[in-house]
Design brief:
mainly alpha; two-stranded antiparallel ribbon; about 55% helix; elongated
Length: about 80
């Protein structure tokens, strides 16, 4: 798991989801002091947004795969990343 100082924007999907799962587990256990709960909840929200962003990017890349008449991949179209 990445520590709380790791820049979320640099995390891979796998690392972000792993850290998010750890945060959820800690919060569900209910043994985290209130102040820390708020801090890790906020980080969890940022991790969730990172995962959603990476999933949207992957989906856009898949959507750009072009198929021929028989449904076989023939290439890709340029991806306009925003």
């Amino acid at each position: 798991m990445a520590d709380n100082t790791t820049d979320i924007k640099k995390l891979t999907f796998e690392r972000a989801i792993e850290e998010l799962e750890t945060i959820v587990k800690r919060l569900e256990e209910g043994k985290v002091p209130l102040e820390e709960s708020v801090a890790i909840y906020e980080r969890g929200e940022a991790l969730k947004k990172r995962c959603e962003e990476l999933l949207r990017q992957a989906e856009a890349r898949v959507d750009k795969i072009t198929l021929d008449a028989s449904g076989k991949p023939t290439g890709t179209e340029p991806l306009d990343v925003k």
